[in-house]
Write a structure and sequence with these properties.
The protein has 348 residues and is mainly alpha-helical. It contains ten helices and no strands. It is globular, with a radius of gyration of 24 Å.
Length: 348
């Protein structure tokens, strides 16, 4: 019996290792193929709860999903009437003043270099600091050059995203409409003795995904609204753009708030160092509110990962799959944890 368990564990380990190697090797093609299905996952957990409420009022599933889509389109259109013109104005003004902003930062940068070179610090310390500054500026220049060179590719990516979202909406419609049939077809592939365990595992995974997706989206919206209001109050330029960036970045666990803070602090620094300091204070206060009151209500305890495991997952996801990997790392690792626990329970 022990020999069988050892063989089973070895087989599982080899299978998981092979799967991970395959995913890493062909990650770009896999992500391209799966992107509509990945986009449909959050859509399902947004659309399905509403459609189920309509279903309890004897409205057919297909009609209820169509009504949710219609309500969403109307909401987006209504928000767009007020939001998009202001957002477009913010973006246009930002693009127009970008050369001026870059010139201001060049002056700040040159003053910083002059201060370091004329300081009383040791030559070794100066060399280290100047080398790191040079490396950082090189990375920034390369990033900006890539953006300019890949402008057409970025437009194509936006077009692909529109197509993927459209396909994801179709997939979501059928998942909400025929989800029970899909589950029955899936269970028929397994013996009856294993179906109860599969249903239990599926429910636990669904609970994790629902808690993470719904909680992160609601938290992102709240944080985006708070940051926009703070920027408006402090008179920071482009408050809608910066608030939207902050809200979206907040979806990434732990590191998102820092990523979202960079543009706001950079814009405020062109006004005055004091203004930048106030922006930092405001963002810290908002983040404390989010950590203390919003996230515990929306997310905490629903994913079931230790903070250290979450940080590791986000770092690994970002290293191998970029921003998308950072977004998906936590639920993916949580699902893997559930599957491993269920396998261990089954063979114990």
């Amino acid at each position: 019996m022990k020999v069988k368990k050892v063989i089973f564990y070895i087989a599982v380990l080899l299978s998981v290792t092979g799967l991970i190697a395959f995913l890493i090797t062909y990650r770009e093609k896999i992500l391209r193929i799966l992107s509509p299905f990945l986009l449909s996952v959050p859509l399902v957990y947004i659309v399905k709860p509403v459609s189920e409420k309509l279903l309890r009022k004897r409205i057919p599933v297909g009609v209820s999903v169509a009504l949710v889509y219609l309500a969403f389109i109307i909401l987006v259109a209504a928000a767009g009437i007020f939001f998009i013109p202001e957002l477009a104005a913010n973006m246009r003004e930002l693009m127009e003043t970008l050369p001026e902003l870059l010139a201001q930062y060049e002056q700040i940068f040159n003053r910083l270099l002059s201060y370091i070179k004329t300081s009383n610090w040791s030559e070794q310390v100066k060399a280290v600091i100047l080398r790191e500054i040079q490396n950082t500026t090189g990375m920034v220049h390369k990033f900006l050059a890539d953006i300019l060179e890949n402008g057409l590719e970025m437009l194509l990516d936006v077009a692909r995203m529109v197509v993927d979202i459209t396909i994801a909406m179709v997939i979501t419609y059928y998942v909400a409409k025929d989800g029970q049939k899909f589950r029955e077809w899936f269970l028929m592939l397994f013996p009856r003795s294993a179906r109860a365990g599969l249903i239990s595992t599926g429910k636990e995974i669904s609970r994790i995904l629902a808690g993470f997706i719904q909680g992160q989206l609601i938290t992102a919206v709240i944080v985006g609204i708070l940051e926009t209001a703070a920027f408006l109050f402090m008179g920071i330029k482009y408050p809608l753009v910066l608030g939207m960036i902050g809200g979206i970045a907040n979806i990434i666990p732990y590191f998102g708030p820092y990523i979202g803070a960079v543009p706001a602090v950079a814009i405020a620094l062109t006004i005055s160092p004091l203004k930048a300091l106030w922006v930092v204070v405001a963002l810290v206060i908002i983040q404390q509110i989010e950590n203390s009151f919003i996230s515990p209500k929306m997310i905490e305890g629903k994913v079931g990962l230790h903070p250290v495991a979450t940080i590791f997952a986000v770092l690994a996801g970002g290293e191998f799959f970029g921003i998308l990997g950072m977004l998906l790392a936590v639920p993916v690792v949580a699902i893997i944890r559930v599957l491993v626990n269920k396998i261990v329970e089954a063979v114990a």
